[in-house]
Amino acid sequence: MSIITIDRLPTDALQGDGGGLAPTRTVVAYGFWIFILSDIVLFAALFAAYAVLSGNTAGGPTGRELFNLRNVFVETACLLLSSYTCGVGMLCAERRQAAVFLLFAAATFILGAAFLSIELSEFVGMAEAGAGPTRSAFLSSFFTLVGMHGAHVTAGLLWLLYMVAQVLAKGLRAVVLRRLLCFSLFWHALDIVWIGVMTLVYLMGAR
Amino acid sequence: MDGTERLFGDRSPGVEHHESTANFLSYTVGLGLAVAATIASFVVSQTGLLWEPGVPVGLVVLAFAQIGVHLVFFLHLGSGPDHTNNIMALAFGVWVVFLVIAGSCWITANLHANMMDMPINMVR
């Protein structure tokens, strides 16, 4: 009669070298990464629409006449710096330095709000100049794509305010840190979408 | 903080540590590379540095380089065992993005080319 040895299974399973249980942090980040990728597929559809329709100006203004690359450069600088302050703020949060985190969160919020205000003033200026989303297929797809990115930035800013409130109310405990990790992934992913917008829409459109 | 959270923190039972690849230096290096790629993109698009027909290719290459910088230095995508699933999901996402964008452009370019061949007496 043989006895099944059960003492080997747990030691193998608990090594954490790829075969064991992953940290909750890793699992949460993976789930949120799946969401980010699905969001990027949404943007891919809008990029495809823009790529197809960008030549159909219907006799209206073209990107070359409309886009102000100086504004675009400032917008890009705001987003890149806000990603940096967001990342460094996360590091401070993980080291339980709540005051420094709040400082960097404020910087992230101000930079994101600066980006949004530049984008909104650009949209309003274009609409007032008769280049609103109803003017041509090019402008419809432009406002949909760039506006969708702007809507994501707006959602990110509201989420950031909500996270600051959570840090103030609950402190930097593990569950709050995991939510902060998801926020920072979202914020960095918006930068990746913006690189696509900057290259395809503005830099190629202004030529 | 309740007892369960103090015991296990942000990890499942049985796992002793979590690797943190993030540090201040990696964010700073990432910011530097991203700023360099952005400035290079603007220079390429606004000056005659590159051969004119090659400018779109240069811009696309710079964009992919910058996306890579963001993935590694800001999103901390690595090659460790913790990241295998993330990389697989990313590969699938890139594939879907490629299908949607390249497929749309291909199909509509084909339709457009066929429209161009329409005889002049059919145009109203």
How does the SSE layout of this entry go?
The complex is a heterodimer of chains A (207) and B (124).
Chain A lengths: L7 H6 L10 H30 L9 H4 L2 H26 L3 H31 L8 H34 L3 H32 L2
Helix pairs in contact in A: 2-6, 2-7, 4-5, 4-7, 5-6, 6-7
Chain B lengths: L2 H6 L15 H23 L8 H20 L9 H33 L8
Helix pairs in contact in B: 2-3
Structure, described:
The complex is a heterodimer of chains A (207) and B (124). In chain A, helix 4 runs antiparallel to helix 7. Mean pLDDT of chain A is 90; it is low at 11-16. Chain A has helices at residues 8-13, 24-53, 63-66, 69-94, 98-128, 137-170, 174-205. Chain A is built from seven helices and no strands. With 207 residues, chain A is mostly helical. The longest helix of chain A has 34 residues, at 137-170. Helix content of chain A is 79%, strand content 0%. Mean pLDDT of chain B is 81; it is low at 1-8 and 12-19. Chain B is flat, with a radius of gyration of 24 Å. By secondary structure, chain B is mainly alpha-helical. The longest helix of chain B is centred in the last third of the chain and has 33 residues, at 84-116. Chain B contains four helices and no strands. At the A-B interface, helix 2, helix 4 and helix 7 of A face helix 2, helix 3 and helix 4 of B.
Task: Give the end-to-end Cα distance of chain B, rounded to a whole number of Å.
Answer: 75 Å
Q: Which structural class do the helices and strands of chain B define?
A: mainly alpha
As a whole number of angstroms, the C-alpha radius of gyration of chain B is: 24 Å
Order of helices and strands of chain B: HHHH
Largest interface: A-B, 60 and 56 residues
Weakly predicted, low-confidence segments of chain A? 11-16
Q: How would you describe the shape of chain A? A: elongated
End-to-end Cα distance of chain A: 82 Å
Biggest sheet of chain B, open or closed, and with what strands and sense?
A: none
Form type of chain B = flat
Question: What integer value in Å does the Rg of chain A equal?
Answer: 22 Å
What's the number of extended β-strand segments of chain A?
A: 0
Helix content of chain A: over 70%
